[in-house]
Amino acid sequence: MSDFFDIPEQAIRAFEKWSQLHVFVWDFERQHFYPYLSPQRINTSYPHCVAIQSSELVDKCTFFERQYVLERIGEHPEGLTKVCHAGLVEWCMPIFSEQRMVTILYAGQHTRSSSLAVALYDPQPTSDELPFAIELQMPEPVTADRSDLISEGLRQLAARLSQWLGEATVIAKRPFSPHTQNSLISRRNIILNFVHEHHTEPISLHKLAAHLHLSHSRVSHVVRESCGQSFSKLITDARIRTALDLLAHTQLPVNEVALKCGFREPSYFFKCFKSAVGMTPRSYREHNKRSGRA
Fold first, then answer.
1. Does 33 share its domain with 164?
2. Which terminus of the chain has a smaller tally of CB atoms within 10 A, N or C?
3. In sequence order, which ranges of the chain are alpha helices (DSSP H)?
4. Is the pLDDT of residue 1 over 60?
């Protein structure tokens, strides 16, 4: 059964499957798509980018992505193709909400073929040897025809996500009424939205039961039936997503991040974070410091 809040991830996976490219999502305000995506969508994980961002060339990435592209992509509502200082081709697509740009989709990577027209080149191309290991070969060149297909696919993905964003503001806020028949999907949407809004607070099944107008004995079964996992797992996942945001975009001490996310015990936060992300909170923060998009 489809989960409304899983639509962004499902749509991205469908694009990635046929395009054989990876999609990175830059949600400026970290509230439109951020809570519903995996960490792999939030942080670029292209092997070549990771290598560059761990080197002295990281400032070139920061300038090109955070300033040069950002200042120009708003003039390209249908998307653009760009080549970074390392010669890597990436497709970019803005998403607008209420006539303002809120998100950029990035899909990559390839290298440029002689037939490919490119909208943006990095004005500071790298002339030195790139910090790639011997086994990390450059991606294959992309033809103009293939690039056109990728651009159109990314436009369709952006349209799907824009539609979902509009529906989310309505569906997620719809009250749960005990006097009307609520489908399993409707309950799931309401539960997940409740978790998203309240996970940083002291939260319990009693509060959710009151929100759903259900008894405490009934609500635990409803959560597992509707969402396929326990209420505590939903809360923990939401808190980890918030921790990713705070670690990447603030200088708060790690223990304070834990508290702001809703974890009462820092040691439990460390355990949950490493299990979910595969590294410690401090390691994750250091990784983002080296990333041009962090």
1. yes
2. N
3. 7-19, 39-42, 47-53, 58-63, 70-73, 144-171, 184-198, 205-212, 216-227, 231-249, 254-261, 266-277, 281-289
4. no
Q: Is residue 179 part of a domain?
A: no
Token pair, residue 115, equals 């037939």
Closest CA to 244 of 89, 60, 27: 27
Task: Assess whether 139 and 249 both reside in one domain.
Answer: no
pLDDT of res. 6: 79
Give the angle 214-219-223 at the CA atoms, nearest 5°. Answer: 130
**Predicted TM-score (pTM) of this structure:** 0.68
- CA-based nearest residue to 260, from 249, 90, 44, 46: 249
Q: Which residue has the higher pLDDT, 208 or 41?
A: 208
Quick one: pLDDT band at residue 178, thresholds 50, 70, 90?
A: very low
Q: Provide the token pair at 30.
A: 């970290």
Which of 113, 136, 171 is the C-terminal boundary of a domain?
A: 171
